[in-house]
Protein: DUF5723 domain-containing protein
Amino acid sequence: MKKKIIAFILCLISFSGMAQTLRSSYFLERMPYRYRLNPALINDYGYFSFPVLGNVAIGVNSNMALSKFLYPRGNELVTGLHPSIPADEFLGGLKNKNNLDLDIDMTLLSFGFFAFNGFNTFDISLKSQTSIYLPKDLFTFLKTGQGDGGPAEYDFGNIAAQSNNYVELALGHAHRLNERLTIGARLKVLVGAGNIDARIDRMQITMSDDIWKIRSYGYANLSVAGVTLEKDENGDISGFEYDTPGIAGFGGAVDLGATYKLMDNLTLSMALTDLGFIKWNENLRGVTPEGAFDFDGFKHLGAEDDENGNNAFDDETDKIGDDLEALAKFKEDKAPSSRSTMLRTTLNIGAEYGILNNKISFGLLSSTRFSSIKTRTELMATANFRPAKWFMAAINGSVSNTGSSWGALINLCPRGINFFVGTDYVVSKFTPQYVPVNRPKLNLNFGINFPLGGDPKLKNKTVYNPVPGY
Structure:
C-alpha cells in the first residue's frame, strides 16, 4: 500500500484542535465530561451516556495557514507547489517550524454516579492522536529546487510524524476531604491499536544537472498488529500490507487533580492528565541506509494541466506523493520485539470567580501539553452563564503558541436528557472554495447523555438541582 505523503498531509489539514474534552466546559458543573480535564471536578448530577454518541471530539491544531497550501485556479484547487503559484507567495506564509496535530476522541460508553462521599466515573473511549512536523526548508527545496536558479545544496532535517491510536478504559473518583478541598484520580488501562513514529533527523541533498545525491539520517517504527512490510527490488521498504486487525500493545496511565475553594466565590484547581505509557508488543523498524543514493529528480512535481486541460487536486497530490517516496529510503532493521511510548501529558491550572450567586462566573484556564515533537501552551479566558437550571453556556477567548481563537458552548439539561455542543476554536473566514484563510485551528464536540441522581451535597440547597426530585 503506497503512502501519498503530501496528499495525506493536505487531507488532514482540509478535513480535520487539540481535540479532547472541551476546555470551555471546565467551569460548568453540569457538563458530563469535564472531569477528564481535572478528575477532582465534581458534577452536580450523575449521568449515563448514549452509546458512541456520549462525547465525540474531532479537532485540528496547526500554525500553518491552509490558504498558503491550497490556491483557487478556475473552478479547482491547486497546491502551492504548482508552477502558477509564485515561490514568494507560497513560501512567505510558512513558518520556519511547521506543525499539525489531528486528534479524535470518541466515547463508546460512559457513566457517573455519587457514592463513597464523592463522584465516580467509568469510561470506554477510542482515541487517535497524530502529529506532523515539517521544516520550511523542505518546502523551499520542493518549490525552488526544481528551477535553474535553485541552490545546488540543501541541508535540513527535523522532519517527524507520530500517530498514537488506542482504546482507553478509565475508572475515576473525586473525593471531598472537607468543604474546601477536593482531590481526584482516574486510573486507566490502555489497549493499543497502533503506533507510528517516523523521523528524519538530517537530510543532505546535492544537486547537479542530471543527478541528485541524497543522504538522510532517520528511522521509522511501526507497531500495528497484522502488518507486514513490502520491499522493492533493492530491498528498500516501499509500503506495507494490513491484514487482520488485533491488539498491538497494553499500557496504563493516571490522571491526578485537586480543587480548593479559597473564598466562597473563588475556586482554584490544578490537574495532570495522561501520566502513562503504552508498551507495544509488535514492532517493525526501518532505518535510512548508510551512504548516499542517486536520484534523477522529480517527474511530476507541480505538473501543468494535461492535454485535456485537467489538473484535478487529487491527481496533483497523488503525483507529488509518488515523487516524494523517493526522497527518504528505509531498509528493514532488526528491532526489539517491544518498545514503549509515553502519552501526551497535560497540565491544567484553573481559577474561577463567581458573581450573582454564581449565575455568572469568569474563569481562567492554563493548559500545557507536553509532547516529544512540540510542547503546546494555551491560556483561555471564559465567561460562564447559568440563567436556568436546564440551560448553561460559555464563551471563551484563547491565546497559544499556535495562534489565538475564540469559541462557545451550549449545554441543555431538560428533564431526562442532556445535550451539549461546542467548540474551543472557531474558524470564521473562508475562501469561496470553503478553505479556511487563517491557521486551521478548530475543534468540535457534541454529546447526548441521560441524567441520573443529583449530588447529595446539594439536596438541601437551592443551587440548580439538575433533576426534579433530587
